[in-house]
Amino acid sequence: MAERRRRRKSWWWPFIESEPEPEPTPSPTFKEPWRKISWGEKQRDLQYVQEYRPENGDIKHLRILLYGPVGGGKSSFINSVSTVMRGRTTIPAAASATTSDTSFTRQYKTHQIRKGRGNPKTFYPFVFNDMMGLEEGSDSGVRADDIKLAMKGHVIEDHKFNPACPLSDEDPGYNQTPSPDDRVHVLVCVISANSSEIKEPILQKMSSIRETARDLGIPQMAIVTNIDTACGEIEKDLKNVYKSKHLRKKMKDFSSAVGIPMNCICPVKNYSDELEIDDDVDSLILSALRLMIHFGDDFIEDM
């Protein structure tokens, strides 16, 4: 009898349905990077920037204007470039570590990047202009018309922006006779990878600014900041930056919304909690800086 039960068990046992295998979790990264970058070539890129001189002899400084929504990291990017070029932590631009809907920067500031130490002070032949961020309301944040005037060189140093009233040619902050050095040579939009979808009022302001830059022939590009906090894979290893599916989608969505081509958008990680120099952080910053110099130098050659 027991033998019969054993035979019966062996007959039906193999036909018991097993639990289905769970679907594999999709990988958050691509197998291969979708854009190439020369990791480990920091010194080559650094040397290129250190040796740069404007082709146009009438231009002393290549002027790079940073603009974009509040909290994008404009001031932090200037500090990060200074840190890379000087080989130590520096903070020439006042930046805020808190998240806010209003701009921390209020004035129009030109930031030169100093070369090393000693006197007399010497600076690299490119400068960054920092300004108030774009906000949703018509009476908050920097006005699009003020950014357009800055591109033409009409905004003087330390001008304090008034969100309720655009700069006019009768104001003391208006430069009546801008020189070729005062004009902007490359326009850079700065946006955080952590930001949600850009609101329509800000998109309209950005579109208006981009149209004016187009009419002036000023080259345009963008940098995407905070990539490490936006993607866990990048936070684990910065070299995953061009393997991250999340970041690539974020960049493509931004490109579609604003109209800046993907090959004119560079992801960067600003220095934030580090006390020491990191070669991988530097590589991304230098990659973006080289592109700014390429675009800007092409523009001033034809001025």
Automatic annotation (TrEMBL):
Q: Which GO terms describe its biological process?
A: immune response
The superkingdom of the source organism is Eukaryota
The UniProt entry, under SUPFAM superfamilies, shows: P-loop containing nucleoside triphosphate hydrolases
Q: What is this protein called?
A: Interferon-induced protein 44-like
Instruction: Show the taxonomic lineage.
Output: Eukaryota, Metazoa, Chordata, Craniata, Vertebrata
Q: Which gene encodes it?
A: LOC108874517
